[in-house]
Amino acid sequence: MIAAAVIAFLIVLALTPLVRVLCLRAQIVDRPGPLKIHSTPTPRLGGVAIFSGIIAGILAVNAGAAVANWPVLAAFALIWLTGLLDDLRSLPATLRLAAQFMCAALLWHAGLRLVIFDNAPANFTIEAGFVMLLINSMNWLDGIDGMATEIAGLIALSYALSPSHALTALGLVTACSMCGACAAFLFYNIEPASIFGGDSSSTLVGLIIAFLGLDLTRRHQPSTSHDILVPLLVTSVPVFDALVVVLGRLARRESALAGDKKHFYDVLLARGWSVSSVTVVSCAVTAICVAIAAAIERYAISPAWSTVGFGLSVLWIIAPRLGSFAEARVPLPRKLFARGTFR
Q1: Which partner from 6, 40, 167, 280 sits 20 to 30 angstroms from 32, CA to CA?
Q2: In 3D, which of 205, 196, 147, 146 has the Cα closest to residue 174?
Q3: Does residue 336 sit within a domain?
Q4: Are 23 and 194 in contact (CB under 8 A)?
């Protein structure tokens, strides 16, 4: 599977400069704004190179598994195309959510199913929520140079290094391909970034992370608590950030999708942290969570859910002190799904 990572790495490394030049010529750039931290217009279609590298790595090493599981590749293509159109024309939030729901349905159709209850609609509802949570949490995490790429690469690496029986052939080759793609993109995306991945990158890696988590749970039907916990632990940083931000917006009676600067990285930057410091700490926390998840996976630790409970408790204590719930008035939203920026 190292070949998949190498192929993805080389394609992204070679293709990204070309995409950057085309973006500059066509003026497809992310311009500075009140919700941005960069000060100069920056190309934002890095997701074109990342998608190309990941798909090439998968098809070159295990085309048979990809064809046999075509709904999975169809979901990757759908979320990437939706993100690309959003980068180009700024799609409505409802349309993006509909595309994410369709991706969850495609994964379900491919046999990637969370089986928790004896009720298929209930199981699908939970799975769709899981998929959409990871897609949007990775999208929201992509707010400072390099961080989303580094964390996505770490998460993919944790799956690539999992025991040989943990993932299917398609899951393993996908994890390896994403490792290579993220590693190559960092040459251009780390601070100061010369190109951004855009929604076509962040939503794609979010969906792939959701796919890898579901692929991990597929070996046990019904799904066990350990199987469900591992995907949640390795994505703790983006998921916790998303939960705190959404809860803060609802507490302020704002749209859950309205953009703001209440993400943890925004708050830390406002308190004087550098971009590199925020990125290093976020990656370190992710690495610790990955190590805990690996221990749970290897030793089937029974009180595993206590780890999640402890983490959520700490988060709930810290978040108000960082200002995530500042200016909260009433814990009820006025417009839950008003059109927003998805930031």
Answers
A1: 280
A2: 205
A3: no
A4: no
